[in-house]
Every structure is written in C-alpha cells, then in structure tokens.
From TrEMBL, chain A:
The chain crosses the membrane at residues 12-30, 36-56, 68-87, 107-132. Residues 5-126 form the Na+/H+ antiporter MnhB subunit-related protein domain. It is a multi-pass membrane protein. It holds the Pfam family MnhB. This is Na+/H+ antiporter subunit B.
From TrEMBL, chain B:
It comes from Arthrospiribacter ruber. Residues 129-418 form the NADH:quinone oxidoreductase/Mrp antiporter transmembrane domain. Its main location: membrane. The chain crosses the membrane at residues 6-25, 32-49, 69-96, 108-127, 133-152, 164-184, 204-228, 240-258, 270-292, 299-323, 329-348, 368-393, 405-423, 455-473. This is Na+/H+ antiporter subunit D.
Length: 136, 507
C-alpha cells in the first residue's frame, strides 16, 4: 500500500506499539495482559509496518529470522519452569525477587516464563504472516 | 516431595524439540541429534521406571500448590510403564525415519514435531489432573495434525481432514465431560474426583458424564461405532509417521479409558455392559475389515481396531485378571504395532507398493529379512511363545472367571481372524512367486540405499523384535509387572492417598 499517510503513521506506530506491548507484557501477572497478548501486539506492529513498506523493508528491521524466536522463547520458558529445581521446589513454582524493581515491579520466574511466551507468539505469528505474504 | 524425575521425561522431550528447532535447516544434524536425544530420553524413562518400581508411587505438585488445587503429576507403575514404551517407540521411529522419510518431508520440521508428540504422550501418562490430561491430548493431536499432513500429498490431505474433524469432535466431547464433572464435584484432580464422585447421589448424571468420556476416548482409540477415521487416514502418511500413530496414539485413548474407569467411574453395571458390547463389535468389525483389504497399511489399520477391541474387553470385564490382560496386551501391542508399520514401510521401500496382490517373493529375495519380519507378524497373532499369546490367555481366564462366555467367543474369533489374515499376508507377500514390478520414477528403492541407510531401516525393527521376543519369552517379568499394575488400578486407595497426601478412612 503506497499511501503517504499510512506510511508516515506506521513509522511512528511501530515503536509506540512495541513499547505498549512491553507494557502489556509487564502488567500481565495480576491484571489483564501478559506474554500472549503482548506478543500479538508486537507482531501486529511489525505486520502493520510490512503492509506500509513491504515485506523486504520489515525483514531488514527484524534481521533475525522470526522462526528462531520460537525456540529461543521456548528455551526461556523451560528455564523459568525448571529453575525451582535449583532450590529444591517442585517444577513451575513461582520464585520471586523480594524487592520490587522500579518501573518493572516484582520480578520473578513467572516474568521470565511470560517473556518466553511473548517471544514464541511474536515468532510464530510473524512466521505465519511472512510465509503467507511470500506466497501471494 | 519434589522429585525431579517425575516430570523430567516430559521436559526432556520438550527441550529436545526446542534444540531441534534451532537446527531447522540442518537435516543431517537433526537426524543424529534426534536419535541421540531419543536414546537419552529412553534412559531417563528407564530411571523413572526403576525408581517407581522400587520405591512405589511418586507424586509432585507442580507450582507447589497442594493437591486438589494445583496440577499433580503422578508416576505410578502403569504411567511409567507407558512412558517407557512411548520412549522405546519414539527411539525406533526416530531412527527409522532418518532413512525412510524423504528430505522434502524432513525439511518441514518432522523431528521437532515427533518430539512434541512424544512429550504430549509422556504428559498424558504422567498427569494426575483430568483437565491437564485434556491439554496433553491437545498437544498430541496438534502435533499429529502436523505429522499427518507433512508432505502435503492429495491423499494425505484427504485422510488428514477426516482425522482432524473426528479428533476435534472427540476433544469437544471430552471437554463437555470435564465441564459436567467440574459442575458436579467442583474438582479436576483425578484423585480428588475419585472421592467426590462416589458421594454424589444422582447416578444418572454420573452415567451421562461417563458416557461422554467413553465417546471421547472411544473416538481417540477407534472403537466400534467410532473408528471410521482410522482406516481412512492411517495408510496415507509415510510409514514412519504411521508407525508412531499406530503404535501409540490409539493406545493413549485406551490408557485414558483404563485410568478413568478404574479411578473415577468405578464399578458401574451399565458402563460395563456397554464397554463389553462395544468391545465385541470392535473385534468383529476390525477383523472383518482386515480380511477384505489388499493394502498392507489398511490391513494393519484394521488390526489396530480389532486389537483395541481386546483391550476394551478387558476394561469391560473389570476384574483384576482382565485388567492384567489389558495391561499386558497394551505393552505387547505398542511394540508390535509400531514394528508392523515399520515392516510395511520396508516392504514399500523394497517393492514400491503395498498391495499384497502385486507383492511377492520376499522370502526368496530377502530370506533373513523375512524371518525378522515374521517376528512381529506372528507375535501379533499370538502364536506361543510369542508375546500376543499370554495376554489372550489372561483375557480368556478373566472371562471364564466372570462368566462372560460371549466375550470370550469374540476374543477367540478375533484371534482366528487375525491368524487368517496374517497367514494370507505371509503367503501373498513372502511365499508367493514375485512378479517383476515396473519401477516407479519417484522414490528411492531399498537396494539403491547406502549401507548406513539400510541399517537405519532394519535396526529399529530388530530392536523392537528383540523387545517383542523378550515380552514373549521372559513373560514372567511382564506378567508380574502387569499383575502389579492391575492390583494398583483395582485398589486406587494408595494412589489417592499419595496424591491428596492424607490418609483415607475406609472407602
């Protein structure tokens, strides 16, 4: 779509949406949000960009083949899930750092798990979208 | 309380799949890595099995939430035996696929999906939570959807649509059943459910719920009126995929059935009659189906149905001896069915067809290989002392004990039909003089393969045949194992006490 308005808007929307997706990711533990929704939102940011500028342009921003985001995210989630073994607790027990960190809030293994989910969702959505766009 | 071995088989398969995903474009590395990881996974399952066999039931509460609230993982003898068998079949198929699958298929993530599938199976065998069981079923069917469509041939897609549609339907039934159960009891933990379901007075509602589970697991395990998807789809994917499907997927349904009907819906006359009738008709329709078909994959597909009937019969009788037969048969069947589909894969590789009318001369051309292939074929029939024999003995004993003469008649009939068909297959494929089949342009034939690839095709068959022989010849070990499993299943108090971590008053 070669529309100046759309292109200019999506140029500014990309960082904004990405930032918002991180915000959604972080608030997700007790409030609506989390890795899945955040990941979708981040993926939408890239998809919007690809509509405005074409796939080639977007690929050059993402650099990494989105397919590899899936195993990376999964690996993060697995590590978060098994980390309680180190302190002799059952798998997937939530481990929390005592003090809340500024801006981010409470940090724990659940956050790492959610970041993993976030990456997997971005990876799979972008892989699907990119390969569909490639074939048409 | 936090024994890491309990969930390690699941997490290890997941980690393997993730590792393999990193090597998406490097198929050679994937082949080697997958075989090595499967071997390691088998080792882990063995350790877990040994631990449970020596120490007894192991429980871990994931997330450290105590029993009825969190998700419990329970490793009892039945579950760990199944975990072990799934790992064995996984290893065999992983090696077999390296030579039998075309590169085009391997490129689209066959190996990661195989490990995701095994992960789902391990999860289903180890979970102690009914909703979690549903989730593992979803993991299994989603990975199997990918495996069945990989390659994207027309026939494959046609089979896949039937497979997907009916399996999704089964999931819906399963989910509705869970919703009923949750509405009735307010719990999803199977041990907790076992206690709470017994306190409910409205037996009609419990029966309806149980029937929903029966239909759901019935579709998954392909029993009589619900099996149509299986023969329509199992011959379409490549033999390596068919092997893992035929060996394990329907058996998860049987496992779930045994688990729920021994733990949650216990001792109901109505269900026991329905199960027995379904079992008898399953044996009959599976056997008759196998008689009329000429395609090896289809014949073996109908055999799956026929022999699911045997296991159902054991569940229907609901005596300790019959459950013992079911467990023994399950152990034998997973190994043999996986092996059979791999054998049919080798036959396909050698001749380029699976039609038994066109095939022939296998014994003349490959005498040693034919003798090897005879092991799974005749184990299936249950010629003593091979493995199928002992299980049938227990079914018949169990039937005599509970006066189910009609069911015994069907089991004997089923065995005869199996014998007849296997004899026909043996005569047509191995003994008959072979014609020179026209060589197809596509596909690589067995004799054109390198030495290492030939080995990769034959070794898994040898491996599973040795296990088959062990089950048959070292039957006393398997008998004592299945005796123990049957005892645990029929007296679930220990299971419930371990999960809920409290002592029960006399039930």
């Amino acid at each position: 779509m070669k529309s100046l308005i759309f292109q200019t808007a999506s140029k500014y929307l990309l960082p904004l949406l990405l930032l918002f997706s991180v915000f959604i990711l972080l608030r997700g533990h007790y409030l609506p949000g989390g890795g899945f929704v955040g990941g979708l939102m981040a993926a939408i940011a890239f998809i919007l960009h690809s509509f405005a500028f074409g796939l080639k342009e977007t690929r050059s921003i993402v650099r990494l083949n989105p397919r590899y985001l899936m195993p990376i995210g999964l690996a993060l989630s697995i590590m978060a899930a098994v980390s309680p073994w180190l302190v002799n607790l059952p798998v997937m027990t939530g481990l929390w750092y005592d003090e809340p960190i500024k801006l981010i809030g409470m940090v724990g293994s659940a956050l790492v798990f959610d970041i993993g989910v976030y990456l997997v969702v971005i990876g799979s959505t972008l892989t699907i979208m990119f390969s569909i766009t490639d074939t048409i | 309380m936090s024994n890491i071995w309990i969930v390690l088989p699941i997490l290890f398969q997941l980690t393997s799949a993730v590792l393999l995903l990193f090597f998406w474009n490097y198929i050679k590395i994937q082949k080697i890595l997958s075989a090595l990881l499967s071997l390691l996974g088998l080792g882990i399952s063995l350790v877990l099995f040994k631990e449970v066999y020596n120490e007894g039931l192991l429980v871990t509460q994931s997330g450290n939430w105590s029993a009825p609230f969190g998700i419990s993982f329970v490793a009892d003898t039945f579950g760990t035996t199944m975990v072990l068998l799934a790992s064995v079949a996984g290893l065999a198929v992983s090696v077999f696929a390296s030579a039998s699958m075309t590169k085009a298929r391997l490129q689209f993530g066959f190996y990661p999906m195989l490990h995701f599938l095994i992960m789902g199976l391990q999860g289903a065998f180890l979970t102690g939570d009914i909703f979690n069981l549903y989730v593992w079923f979803e993991v299994i069917i989603i990975s199997s959807f990918v495996l069945i469509t990989i390659g994207g041939k027309k026939a494959q897609l046609e089979g896949a649509i039937k497979y997907v549609a009916l399996n999704l339907l089964a999931s819906v039934f399963f989910l509705i059943g869970i919703a009923f159960l949750y509405g009735l009891t307010g719990s999803l933990n199977m041990a907790d459910l076992a206690l709470k379901v017994q306190e409910i007075d409205n037996k009609g509602l419990i029966n309806v719920t149980a029937s929903l589970f029966l239909v759901a697991f019935g579709i998954k395990s392909a029993v009589f009126p619900l099996y149509f998807w299986l023969p329509a789809s199992y011959h379409t994917p490549p033999p390596a995929v068919a092997a893992i499907f035929g060996g394990l997927l329907t058996k998860v349904g049987v496992y779930a059935m045994v688990r729920t009907f021994t733990l949650i819906f216990v001792g109901d006359e109505f269900l026991s009659v329905i199960l027995s009738v379904m079992a008898a008709l399953t044996i009959l329709s599976g056997g008759l189906g196998a008689m009329v078909h000429q395609h090896l994959g289809k014949i073996f597909g109908y055999f799956i149905i026929c022999h699911i009937g045997f296991m159902m019969a054991g569940v229907g009788m609901m005596t300790e001896l019959a459950i013992m037969g079911t467990v023994f048969y399950l152990v034998h069947d997973i190994v043999v069915k996986t092996n059979l589909f791999m054998v049919s894969g080798i036959v396909l590789k050698i001749n380029g067809t699976q039609n038994i009318k066109e095939l022939g001369g296998m014994y003349q051309n490959y005498p040693l290989l034919s003798l090897l292939m005879a092991i799974p074929l005749f184990s299936l029939v249950g010629i003593p002392p091979l493995s199928g024999f002992w299980a049938k003995l227990f079914f018949i004993q169990g039937g005599l004990e509970s006066n189910e003469y009609l069911l015994i008649a069907f089991i004997v009939l089923g065995s005869f039909l199996t014998l007849w068909v296997i004899a026909k297959v043996w005569a047509e494929v191995f003994w008959k003089k072979g014609e020179n089949l026209p060589k197809k342009a596509r596909g690589i034939y067995f004799r054109e393969l390198g030495r290492r690839q030939k080995l990769a095709l034959i070794l898994p068959v040898v491996f599973l045949s040795i296990i088959s022989l062990y089950i048959g010849l070292g039957a006393e070990n398997i008998v004592s194992l299945s005796e123990r499993i049957a005892k645990e299943l029929m007296n679930p108090e220990a299971y419930i006490e371990a999960v809920m971590s409290k002592k029960l008053n006399a039930l």
